[in-house]
Write a structure and sequence with these properties.
globular, Rossmann fold, five-stranded mixed sheet, 312 residues, alpha/beta
Length: 312
């Protein structure tokens, strides 16, 4: 597989400075994460609209709330574990409750915290943020999709949680990537034996697995679900009606993440069978992205094997 030339956080930073050139109301806040969360460009070009508040994430969210209440569109960037847990009360009460225009940019999402270990791997963040009313929850798959999504959420007025990774990752999309809040993307539609639904950094591996299954005579529909909330219920129900067997794949705890969201839709519709692949309700380990994906069974080979066994 080909890898992106830049990381998702750098792609975010490029898109952000472009937005700042177009809109004087764009502001950037970082919690001692200016460089590590793509803020170097906007900080250099627009120093009056970029602030590093230090290791004070809760204060950062209160600052973002105050700025947004005065008309600013604020991008507040830190790591996923802090963006979803350390600041949760401030986000819930002072940003989401009044539905202010603050975008939470959450880096090191999922296992991409890598060698930093469990303390810096945000494997519970989507489940947490899905529970916050008024919050849109989005997950980017690679650098190209990050750029498109960053621009799209800037057009949306209200709170958004955007999950991105750390290092350059496997490329799956290009500049023609299509994104709309609340809509799924059908990446492949080669049959009705099973439907794989994924988000984030596993998308490239799911695509490779779907192609490998096709070679084995197993027809698969592959859906990327970049918006976990509001989730595309129509796409899920349609897949359940036509494919019956649904497999979700994500680098998140299988409780509360995409798998949980899809399970809710299927249960309410009384349709389909579901198999969830992800982090099996445990903490992460220290290791590279590739090592951790293998450790948790999120490899092309294991996705293929899981689908084969599930549809038997």
């Amino acid at each position: 597989m080909m890898y992106d030339k830049i990381s998702m956080r750098d792609a975010f930073g490029q898109a952000l400075v472009e937005l700042a050139r177009e809109d004087d109301n764009i502001f950037y806040l970082a919690a001692d994460t200016t460089k590590s969360m793509g803020g170097a460009l906007i900080s250099k070009e627009f120093p009056d609209r970029a602030r590093n508040v230090g290791i004070a994430e809760q204060n950062m969210m209160l600052m973002a709330s105050g700025m947004a209440s005065c008309g600013a569109k604020v991008f507040a960037a830190t790591y996923a574990v802090f963006a979803s847990m350390r600041v949760l009360e401030q986000v819930r009460t002072f940003i989401a409750y009044p539905k202010l225009d603050v975008k939470l940019i959450a880096g090191l999402g999922g296992i991409t915290g890598g060698i930093e270990g469990a303390t810096h791997q945000g494997t519970e963040d989507i489940g947490i943020m899905r529970n916050i009313a008024n919050m849109v929850v989005v997950s980017a798959a690679d650098a190209a999709s990050t750029r498109v999504i960053t621009r799209a959420i800037a057009d949306y007025k209200g709170p958004v949680y955007l999950r991105i990774g750390r290092n350059p990752f496997e490329q799956v999309f290009d500049e023609n990537y299509q994104f709309e809040i609340g809509k799924a993307n059908v990446m492949l539609d080669e049959g009705k034996d099973a439907c794989i639904i994924c988000h984030g950094i596993v998308a490239a591996r799911c695509l490779a697995a779907a192609k490998a299954l096709k070679e084995k005579g197993i027809g698969v529909r592959l859906i990327e679900m970049p918006t976990i909330k509001p989730i595309d219920k129509e796409a899920i129900v349609s897949a359940a009606a036509e494919c019956k067997n649904i497999v979700t794949v994500e680098d998140h705890n299988i409780i509360g993440g995409l798998g949980g969201a899809v399970a809710e839709v299927l249960a309410e519709a009384g349709m389909g069978k579901l198999k969830r692949m992800g982090i099996p309700d445990c903490y992460g380990q220290s290791g590279t992205d590739a090592e951790l994906l293998e450790y948790f069974g999120l490899t092309v080979e294991n996705i293929v094997h899981t689908v084969e066994e599930f549809i038997k």
